[in-house]
Each structure stands twice: as structure tokens, then as C-alpha cells.
Amino acid sequence: MTSQNQAHGTQRFGRLIERADGRDFPYYNGSPVQVAAWKWGLIVLACAAGFFTLMFYPATNDFESLVPRILFPAIPLALFILFTGEYWKSLFHKLSGMDYVDMVLFWLLNLVVSLGIGTIVAATAGATPNAVADGVLDGGPAQVVAFYVGTGVQLFGEEIFTILPFLAVMYLCHTKLGMSRNAAVIAAWLITAVWFGAAHLPTYDWNVLQAILVIGAARLVLTLAYIRTKNILVSTGAHILNDWVTFTFMLVAASAAGGAS
């Protein structure tokens, strides 16, 4: 371990949560580059700008939706690269075999947690279905391909939308508020779960319990994939597995229903 990792070794959550590989979160303590608080503020605003582009761009099908889906991660990532230079790459690491295992494990954990909490919320407060796959089959195979490509990019954007604010909150809590590394991680983990859940309020017809509890809980699991690996590609992989499997079941069911009618 490097001296920096040794300094933080006593603060780690343990092997059940964090791998014993010495890899630490970037940016929160000035390594590998210092990102000032005002820059973090603009990065978070850029995440919001990407989200509003996704929400309000006038797309009528999955081909047109490729534009806002690409801009969703591109807007904040472009500003982040501007502010961090070559060190933006610290968000990403080469995938290992264990990374792929973690993608599957966190997908399955997310499935269990989402189903459990979702069942309780649906029974008590009702639930609004996600209509993202509605009408996809009407455009034929080409639109199905555009749907999967576009949603894959959008899900990467959702990781950018979460992990950059996660690192911003962690920096603020640790560097500016003097919180310990682990306390800063917990604060960032919880705050960005609410942030992510709140962003889904329009999707679920402003059902607060569904957005904050169900989607927020799913976000907690997906962010754990990042906390464990410090690699946004792993949380993205788990997120894509989770949503693409769900979308596939929805499309297969829609196709079967259409064939039976």
C-alpha cells in the first residue's frame, strides 16, 4: 500500500464493503488532483443541466431520443474533464474478472432489494409502472436496437449523474466540514440516493414513496458497487444488467400480448 492508502487504511469499511486492494476514492482529499468547491458546484449544476436536457428535449421516438440520452452524460462529463484535465480517468479503471462478478452480484442484490421494498410500497401507497418501453416494438427491429443503445447510454448518464455529486458531497464533508472519510462516504451515499430518487419523480407520476424509497433504495445498492470498486464502469454494468433484463421482459411480454390479440 502507498503511504496515502496506509493513512486511510484504518478508516476503510472492511473487506465486506471495500476490497482490500488499497484503491481509494479520488478527488475528495486532493488526490490525484484538487477540485475546488466552486468547481464541484458547477459540476453538480452540469449534472442537473444534463438531466433537464434529457427530460425536455423534444424527442418523439428512440432514434430522436439518442440526442438527449447522449447529452445527459456528455454535458457534466465535458465540464468535469475541463476541471480535472488528465485526471478525469480516475473515475474509470480497467475491468477485471472480479469486476464482472461484482456487476452480477450487485444486480441480483438490487433485484432483491427493489422487489422487497417495491412490494411493500405498492401494497401501501400504490405504484406507477415505468412506461419507458411502451411502443418500442412498433418501430420494428431498428427501433429496438436504438432503444437498447439509447438506454445503455442513458444508464451510464445516470451513473455520472450520481457518482459526480457523490464525490462532490464527499469532498465537501471531508475537506470543508472536517468529517472522517467513512462519515463523508455515508453522507454522500444517502444524499445522492435521495437526489437520484427525486429525479425519478416525473417518471413515476410524482409518487414520492415510490421514487424516494424504491428507486432510492435501488440507488443505494448501485452506489455500493462504486464504493466497493471505485470504478464507475462496475456500477454502470450492474445498472445496465438490472434495467435491460427488466426491459427485455417487458418487450417479450408486449410481443406475446400482441401476438395473442
UniProtKB/TrEMBL annotation:
Q: Where are the transmembrane segments?
A: 40-58, 70-88, 100-125, 145-171, 183-202, 208-227, 239-260
Q: Domain of life, per the record?
A: Bacteria
Q: Name one GO biological process term.
A: CAAX-box protein maturation
Question: Which InterPro entries would you find in this protein's record?
Answer: Rce1/LyrA-like_dom
- A single GO molecular function term of this UniProt record: endopeptidase activity
Domain CAAX prenyl protease 2/Lysostaphin resistance protein A-like spans what residues? 144-245
User: Can you name this protein?
Assistant: CAAX prenyl protease 2/Lysostaphin resistance protein A-like domain-containing protein
Keyword annotations for this protein, in alphabetical order, are: Membrane, Transmembrane, Transmembrane helix
- Name the species this protein comes from: Leucobacter luti
Q: Does the keyword Membrane apply?
A: yes
